[in-house]
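Schema walkthrough. Field components (list of strings):
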Amino acid sequence: MAPESTSFLLGRLVTQLEREGEQILRVETGISYKRAVFLFVLRFLGTVTQHHLAEALGYSDPAVSMMLRELVKEGFVTTAPDPEHGRKQLVTLTPEGQEIAIRARHVLDAHFDELVRLAEVDDQQLRSITTKLIMAIAEKRKKELS
Amino acid sequence: MAPESTSFLLGRLVTQLEREGEQILRVETGISYKRAVFLFVLRFLGTVTQHHLAEALGYSDPAVSMMLRELVKEGFVTTAPDPEHGRKQLVTLTPEGQEIAIRARHVLDAHFDELVRLAEVDDQQLRSITTKLIMAIAEKRKKELS
DNA sequence: CAAATCTCAGCTACACTGACATGA
DNA sequence: CTCATGTCAGTGAAGCTGAGATTT
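Field assembly_structure (string):
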């Protein structure tokens, strides 16, 4: 292989991971990868406003609004007006949403763990690197805003 | 932070990298991240048939056919019938395509290198892990086909 | 006739921007 | 009035499948 740059390799890696994940999730849970991420993040955040959720996902408000409409229709989340603020909508996972989020997570994790095993990669090392990079991005973004 | 799984963290990381990459590329080169990947892969492969390119990218034939039409229109690639096979189309980067691919690569690499530096991550380590995982995916795919 | 390669047509998921309504 | 929040409308980039044409 040619001396490809790390950024390119990493990009290719995750593109492929997403594709595989997409397929597996479709079969095992019936939802898409993107929707699964939605549910994961929501599970992590608990009950939040749509705007807050949009920020956490890095999406625009309208994008979240539309995606939520679908997820509500499918029974995975509920939205309710914030009693303390007439404009805000509080978003929460339903029990079905919780359940499918957990299931989707297990499916993806199992798949990834197997890959890590096959590749003979140190999961702790990978995890540490990934976390550092994510934090660095967050840092940088914070700096750019100020 | 909650004990998020490595696969999830990695997915989030690259989603964010792609988003940043998309923005920077737009500004600095005028092309999208996906198109850049197209050009990168083509540069790596040299002159190939559309079908071969589709396999390398993991896309369907029609997807490649349409993307190529755009890239030809923009002058980044040329397609020519294979003299040895009346049905095949040979795809090649034009000089402009080469140039923009190189420029896009530099832009992305510079950005990523800075991030790696900020995060205080060992690039060699990251590179090694990424390469191992990509090879493991390729291995697995080969096995599943047979 | 079968297989490989490319294109056409139609469709879907998912994201964005800009404009707007509404409540704090 | 202005900011924050959410929705509506329109649009775009990029992928898919299924069907068809053409060449081997």
